[in-house]
Every structure is written in C-alpha cells, then in structure tokens.
Protein 1
Amino acid sequence: MTSASTKLLSNLRAASTHLRATDADELANTVDDLLTPNGWRNLRTAVEADAMGRQLTEMADLKKRLAQFGTQKGYSPFSGGDSFSISIGKVAHDRYKRKWAKSDSSSTTDVIDAMTAFITGEFSPADYPRRAKGTGAATYINLRMTDEFKQLFDDAAKLREAELGYVTTIGHVVKAYLAEKYDKPAE
C-alpha cells in the first residue's frame, strides 16, 4: 500500500470515529460502508450515475438553448456575427459545390445542419481524412456566425469530450458531416 493510500485509509477511519463521537452515526456508517470491499465500487457507480445525470441535464439545456434560436423571428445563427472560415481541401470543396448546385442544400445550410446535429447529439463526427501538409490546395467555406451560436457549439464540444475522446472543432464537425453526407457510397 502506498503512503497516500495508507493516509487515505487512516483519515477515513478517523473521520468515522469523529462522526460517531459527535452523534453523526448515519454519516459515520456511510464512511464505514466505503471501507468495505464493495464500498469503493458502490461509490464509483454512484459517482458515474451522478455524472451521467448531470450530462443528460446539460444536454437538455443545450437543446433548449438551440431551440431558442429557432423561435426568434428572422434570426439565423449566421445573421450578423463575425466572419468565420472553415478550411477544406479544394477537391472536396469543388465536389460539394457540384452537389449543392444540384440540390436545395448549400454550404450555409449544411454548416447549420452539421452544427445543430452535433449540438443535439444526433451526429458524432467520425475521423475524417485529413490532407497531409503541403499536399493539395485548400479553400475555405466563409460565413458569418454569431458569438452565441459559437458558444453553444463550444459548450456542446466540452460536454461531449468524454464520449468523443477529444474536444472537437466546428471545422472538424462540418468536414466530417459533409464527408458522411456526400462521400458515402450509395447503398
């Protein structure tokens, strides 16, 4: 047993003794339960369940905030705001432009769809093929985006970090969404 483990065990036993001396038997029993062989496992299960509950609550809050964007008359997450660019390979961009020309989609609607699907948890970006540095030309999808919508995305990215295994970016989500929407072979 390490010295940190020994100190933790000693402190928990001392806490239990102190709690009993102050007539806080229920709290002392809880500490004693932690010291049983299954105590730590039970605590871990409770902590994980609590974290899951908080995540579900935060996700519901994100969905509510997103819904508020749609209820504001004439509001678009891209009306006003600062200029924002997403770097994308020229070959892929040209391919998407051809698809946009043949459909009712556009770069703006696809960016909104990608971000909305990510924020609501309906879309999880798979790793998309990255261009090796110095290979192929890059171009940009340029648009304006409000700070509120960017913040909503950032909050969702932080919330979903454990699920994804990394903090993602708007560019990553959009490129993965476009690749999944347009580059998948027909079934």
Note: DSSP finds eight helices and two strands in the chain.
Protein 2
Amino acid sequence: MPLIDLEEHPFSQLGPPIDFSPDGLRLWISEACKFLNISPTELARAANLAPSTVNKFLLSAGSKKSLSARTMDGIVKSAMRIYIDKFGENRRKLLEQKQPGGSQTPTILVSGTLELGAFKERLNWPVQDQFHIQVPIPNQIYGPPLVGLVVADEQGGDIFPVGTVIVAGKFDAALHDIRAGDWFVVARKDDHGAIETTLRQVLVSPGGDVWLISMSKSPDEYLGKIGARDEIKPNRAASRYIIEYKVLSAIVPVASEFSRVKFSL
C-alpha cells in the first residue's frame, strides 16, 4: 500500500513556470523558495545573481517590469539543482551510501497527520500547510524516503502526545528487521479505498505472540507467532494493517499549550 502522496515533494509538482507575466513569475519564485525551504537571496546566489535583483523583483508586485528570459532561465535551473541536491536524486544517493558511523541532518517535509479513524483519499495537507524540519538521523538506519507526520490525537499516549512531529523512514520487510518495542506508522484501507495512517508499537507476549499495540482504545492487532530464531515476520494475511514506515525520531511537545494547537486536521 505505497503512500506515494506522503512521499511527493511539492516542488516536484510545481514544474517550470507556465505564467510568464511579471506577477506569475513572482508567484513561481515565491513558491519555489517555500517548497525548497530557502530564501530568495539563497536562490539568487545559486543562480549567480545579485540578491537585490530577485528581492526587488519580488517586492514590486503589480509592476509590469519583468526579469529577462535568460535571468529567469538561470533561476529555474538553479531551483531544480537545489531540489535534486536537497530532496531528489543526489540526496537519495547520499543517504544510501554505506557509512558505519556518524549522522546526517536531512531536511524533512512534514506533510500530514496520524489520526485514528481518519480515512482519506489523499494523506498530505494542502501545500501551503506543509513545512520543513531538520533533525539528526544516524547514517544508514533507514533509507529514503523520510517523512514527517504530526500526531493528531491520543493514539501515542504519553510517549507521543498530541502535537508530536514524527520522523519515519520507509520500511521494507526484505531489508529491515522488526524488534519488540519498535514503533511504526501503519496503514489500512476502508471499503472505499480510503487510507488511515496511525502509530503502532510491536510487542511480543510471553507466549511468543506478536502484536501491533495501540496506546489508545483502538483494538490491538495480532501479527502471528515469533519465529524459531526470534525473528518477527508480520503475517499480512492475518492483519488488516501494513507496516509502511519505522519511527526514527520525534519532536515531542513539553508545554501544555501544545494540546490546543491544531495542525490542519
């Protein structure tokens, strides 16, 4: 059940400018900077332009004076290079390199919520509500894509309270082990094909039964028996849930005021 929309970066959907009016170009540059998590000054420097060239253009809304075709071409190409380096092919290659130690601080897009009972056709928020964070991730514990999701209800208990930003890495049963105590983002479909994403923890009973445990009142899910070598292999035929991502890190609110924060629910 690939959750492709959570893994789509909004810049990849932006495409090149199609409105070549001055205000259309201003909008494209502004959106590109937001999606790439950079300032117009950074984009200008990447395009070998004076920052004032881009900043003055953006501040002159309504003016019919535009950028030259050559200048705009340089800006678009520079934005594409930044996207490839930060989120695209170059970033994937960097994360996939086998390194024994250390960590990286990738830029992660927070684009949706984890909410019990919220079955949706599209899981990500409107582009204007998405935002970026950076957190250190140990090298090679999980490869790309990395996704950011906000806990929208009590399903994470005291461990991941409401407002927690979860950072998770793509799970592949053929490559990754499951250990008792691990937390995962799991998905299930309703009868209409809409998808719910929630948090679950893997626990093993004294009798060797493997469970996906919810900290809320949502029923636990039986995954089968632990293997002869203590390996945990989910029985997809026996479970309504598919393990999609492993939780790697979390930004947990510590102030009570967070209980009143709403993240585009």
Note: The chain has a mean pLDDT of 80.
Protein 3
Amino acid sequence: MRTGVGAVAAPAVVALVSGCVRLPAAELLAAQENRFADAYMQLLPVGPVMDAAAEQDSRWPLDKRSALVSTRQLNCVRSGLTSAQITPRQRQSALAYAKAHPDTLMGDLRVLESGAARLFGQSVMQGAGVGPEPVAATSQEKAAITALSTAPEFAPLRRFTGIDQLVDGAAQDAGQRGRQFGQRLLVPYLTDAFVRCHIPVKLLF
C-alpha cells in the first residue's frame, strides 16, 4: 500500500495526463485575457512598425523638422517610440478591454486567433513597408478577417482597435481611410512622446 507524497500525487498525475485538470475560474479568465493581449499585439504591431521607421531614418519621426529641435530632444522622442516603450502600453490597453468585456472575450479570441490578427497585422506591416514577405491566407483566415470586419458581434472590437475606420467609411477612398487609421493608431504615442520631450505637438503635422 502506497502512503505519503506518492499516494497523494498519483491521482493528480493521472488527472493531468487524462486532461481532467481545469484551472480555477479566475486563472482561466486571466489566461484568456493574456491570450487576447497577445492577439491584439499581433493585430496592431505598432512597436515593430515604429522600430523599423526609426531604423530607416535617423531623423524620424520629425524628418526635415528635426532641424527645429535639439539633438537631445530628437533622441528623447525616438527613445520613447520603441517597442520596449510602446508594447507595455498596448498590452495594458488590451488587458483593460478584455477585463471590461468578459461576455464577448471568447468570441473575440476565436476570431483573432483563427487568423484575423495574423492577416491584419501582416497588412499593417506591409503597408508600412516593413516585415517579411506576406504569407498567403488560408480559407479559415479569410473567413476570420471577414467576420472581424463585418459581423455585428465584433463591432465593439472594431471600434476598440480602430478597424471601424477602415470598414465603415464607404464614402472615402481606401487610401484616405488607411491614412486616417494610421494616424489614429500612431498619433497618441507620438503626442505623448513629444509632450514628454518638450517638443511642440504642432511639429507632428
């Protein structure tokens, strides 16, 4: 007869192997929220886009207007617009949304993880002229991006991510919608960096 730790541990091992172990509700929800944050980061790769822009142009994000600020100010604003700085803010925003929308979280996760996040994020990278060669979409991914773009249940997610500007502006041409989407996505981070580095925000425009 087994006694001690072995006897106690054996049922737990059997349950784990058989797939019967379930996380407590709070831990399961936290795991889902973190998965949503991961998918959100893939959907909107702001940090990688800004990293690539900075690498390509030493005067970015001011370009010719960099002559109007000091070297210290330019270095300050560039250091505030890296993945290391932006990613935690994006992740915090995604987690806050997930926590505020527990009833739709699983549906949002399904559509994002089914390929909508990968496809849209790939298009963002390609639109910015960065990233690897695009990978063709599978039929499942095409269905996911269509659902994200059009299904009524994903309207709150579209508004949160800014995708609504791309799919709801039928009267505008695609180029104009794309520019507006890019501004909505990037300007908050740019504005904060400019203010922190004491650069007039008017130099953004």
Note: The chain has one domain: 26-204.
